[in-house]
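Worked example 2:
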Amino acid sequence: MKKLLSLLILISVLAPSKVHAVDLIFGATTWWAWWDMKQKRTVEDRTFTDTDINTEPTLLIDYTFTLKFNDDFNLSFLFLFGPLVFERSGYSLPGNIHFTEKGIATRIDSDITLNYRLNYYFKVFAGAKHLGTYITEGERFRSYGPELGLGFTFPILDNLFFLANLSGFYLWGNEKQPDAGGNTKINDYGINSTLSLAYYIAPASTTISLGGKYQHIKTDYNDDSEGEYRKCTFYGVTLSVTYTFNI
C-alpha cells in the first residue's frame, strides 16, 4: 500500500502540466445511506446462519480534497466516516436458537486516486482504497488494496452536467470476531457506482451536485471455510458541495 501511494503521488508530480497554476478543490458530500448485510459465518460454537443486518437510513459525510495540476491530471483524496445504527438477526449454536440484537457500527471508507481525462466525456482513474467497519463489542472488518475506474461527464445545459462513475476494487485485510480469539484473513472485492447532476456556479467557483451512490462488497475467507460468506450493500442519496480556488 505504501508503495502504491508513493507511486500515485510521484506520477502526479511528474505529470505534464499545461499551466503553472494548480487548482485546489475542497468538498463535502452527505450520503443518506442504507446498509444491508448477509452473512454465514461459524465462530467456535456460534454460527451466524443466514444472518441479516439492516439499518434505518443514516447520514454519512465524506470529505474530498483534489489537486488539479492541469486539464488532464488531478489527484484526489476522499475520507468518509459515520455511525450506522443496525439490527441483526440470525441463528446461533448450540440449539439453533434465533436471536435479534441491535448495535452501532462505525463506517470508514477512504480513497486516494490519480485521474486522467481521456477526452471531453471520459476519464480513467486508479488508486488505493481502505474499507473499515467497526461494530460494538470488538467485531470489525478492515481491508486495503487497489481500485480502478471509469468516469463519464455529459453537458446538459450551460454549467449543468450529468456525471457517472464506476469502479472496481480488490482488497486484502482481516476480520475480527469477539468469540474467535484472533483475526481471520479476508479478501474483499466489489464495485462503487455514482450518478449525479452537477451545477457549477461560476461567480462563486462552487459546484452543487445531487445524485445517488451504490457500493457492493463480497468477502472471501482465507481460513478454509466452506460455504461461508459475507455480502454488504450500501446505497442512498447524495448531496455535495465543492469549492475551487487557484494558487
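DSSP finds one helix and eleven strands in the chain. The helical segments are 2-14.
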